[in-house]
Design a protein that fits this description.
By secondary structure, the protein is an alpha+beta fold. It folds into two domains: about 130 residues, Phosphorylase Kinase, domain 1, CATH 3.30.200; about 200 residues, Aminoglycoside 3'-phosphotransferase, Chain: A, domain 2, CATH 3.90.1200. Helix content is about 50%, strand content about 15%. The protein is built from 15 helices and ten strands. Strands 1-2-3-5-4 form a five-stranded antiparallel beta sheet, sandwiched between helices. The chain has a three-stranded antiparallel beta sheet with strand order 6-8-9. Strands 7-10 form a two-stranded antiparallel ribbon. β2 and β3 form a beta hairpin. α6 packs across α11. About 35% of the residues are buried.
Length: about 350
């Protein structure tokens, strides 16, 4: 047994030494989901976590290297996440947030099984999470009838209400101050306008109005309460399971982009991702989250402003609208009508 463990250790260290040099995101993109490249490291991580490792498959493409082990063996399934060289700060944050989310079973987030760093010629932080069974809503949406989708949306509202109720004082790895949020908004306005010029065909006359529009909406909003938001409730991160004739939420995954923000920040990825821009689903979601929330013109203006404030807002706009559609825009109100159409 001792020799076997020594051989395993040498195997993963040798694999690390043979990894291509990763200096850019393009370098990382070429290898981060390649199972043969990472298999020795994944096996070593499982050994340290006391888990068997019979099979390894790549997870959905994201930022870090994610693998599902023992996919076909329910009692032994787990998710191994190895962090990109540019994302080591995410390791500390995700360790903290998953321990916190465990206290909110109503959310259905993965449990933290193990954590550590593989040290060789370089350092590779990792975590091991429990496996959330089911399929992402992206894969099965077309198989679910309208009534089922509304039920799922309402349940999602209840789950996110539990997330947003977590006291911010329990988080040490996030800036949860109002000053921190205000700094983020001003920095993000600059980033968003630059990204819109770079990534879309939006006319300059529209982009130039973004800072004033966002700041006006924020001033109108006053000082909304900051909550813990996922920021990434997308079609890949809402997991569903089939029970008889009914699809239901089995859990929510990937909280790496969580932050302290007004709850309106959450609506962006939710609308364009998990809810697939379906007005009836948004209404059902609010029935579960906060039935007093009106989906009126104020809501829509705030939703548009927070689209610009979202970390991936410019990317979302570039993916939702074609260059031809974007060039035709004459105002931010035109953009709002294209992106946040509830009637």
């Amino acid at each position: 047994m001792a020799n076997s463990g020594h051989s395993t250790s040498l195997a993963w260290q040798d694999a690390v030494d043979k990894l291509p040099e990763v200096k850019t995101w393009d370098d990382w993109g070429k290898i981060f989901l390649d199972v043969p490249t990472w298999a020795p490291l994944v096996k070593e991580i499982c050994r340290r976590a006391g888990l068997p490792c019979h099979t390894i498959i790549a997870g959905y493409p994201g930022t870090n290297a994610v693998f599902v082990v023992n996919r076909e063996q329910p009692s032994q399934r787990a998710v191994v996440k190895i962090y990109a060289p540019f994302c080591h700060e995410d390791y500390a944050f995700e360790r903290e947030i998953h321990l916190l989310l465990e206290r909110v079973p109503e959310l259905g987030a993965p449990l933290l099984i193990a954590q550590g760093i593989l040290e060789s010629s370089s350092a590779w932080p990792y975590i091991v999470l429990s496996f959330i069974p089911g399929e992402p809503i992206r894969e099965v949406r077309d198989d679910i009838d309208d009534r089922g989708l509304l039920s799922i949306a309402e349940e999602l509202g209840r789950r996110l209400r539990h997330l947003h109720a977590i006291p911010l004082r329990t988080l040490s790895g996030l800036d949860v101050t109002r000053a921190g949020w205000q700094r983020y908004t001003q920095q993000q306005i600059v980033r968003a306008t630059a990204a819109l010029r770079r990534e879309t065909a939006m006319p300059d006359r529209v982009i130039n109005r973004v800072p004033a529009f966002v700041n006006t909406v924020l001033a109108e909003q006053g000082t909304p309460r900051l909550v813990l938001v996922s920021g990434d409730v997308t079609e890949d991160h809402v997991m569903l399971q089939h029970h008889g004739d009914v699809w239901a939420i089995s859990g929510l995954i990937d909280f790496a982009d969580a932050r302290a923000a007004p709850r309106e920040y959450e609506w962006v990825a939710l609308w364009f991702g998990a809810l697939d821009r379906q007005a009836s689903s948004l209404e059902a979601f609010m029935d579960g989250y906060d039935p007093t929330q009106m989906l009126d013109e104020t809501f829509l203006r705030q939703a548009m402003a927070y689209t610009f404030l979202h970390e991936f807002g410019a990317l979302i706009i570039s993916e939702v609208l074609s260059p031809k559609e974007t060039r035709r825009l004459g105002s931010i109100r035109d953009l709002q009508a294209e992106l946040w159409q509830l009637t």
